[in-house]
């Protein structure tokens, strides 16, 4: 938990959420490879390595009552399919040596709940299944 902040725009809220997600992931041993990686499929908020896996991380930041549950509810089936496709697309651009360095490929989700009591970060490993 950290002190609540008051981002002025939705873009600021999202950017602050991503910054908090990166800090939380690093504290949990993730190696951040890229932020806001884009391809023709869409954008991955964070690309990381963790426990031998290549990880695409989706960050969902919400403010107010029930922020964490609303963040998770925003992961529609379409968004989940896009995240899985992004993971495969990123893996496909790696050369053979880099690709073989990873045992697996997964999609994690980080929720950032900004409430009057503070900001709460939750990490959900392997949250989007194959």
Mind explaining what this structure looks like?
This protein has 130 residues and is α+β, with helices and mostly antiparallel strands. It has a single domain, classed as Trna Endonuclease, Chain: A, domain 1 (3-Layer(aba) Sandwich), CATH 3.40.1350.10. Strands 1-2-3-4-5 form a 5-stranded mixed β-sheet, sandwiched between helices. It is globular.
CATH architecture descriptor: 3-Layer(aba) Sandwich
Q: If helices are DSSP runs of H or I spanning 4 or more residues, what is the number of helices?
A: 4
Low-confidence stretches: none
What's the arrangement of strands in the largest beta sheet? 1-2-3-4-5
Q: N- to C-terminal separation? A: 31 Å
Beta strands, count: 5
Arithmetic mean pLDDT: 89
Which descriptors apply to this entry?
single chain; 130 residues; alpha+beta; Trna Endonuclease, Chain: A, domain 1; 5-stranded mixed β-sheet; 5 strands; 36% helix; globular
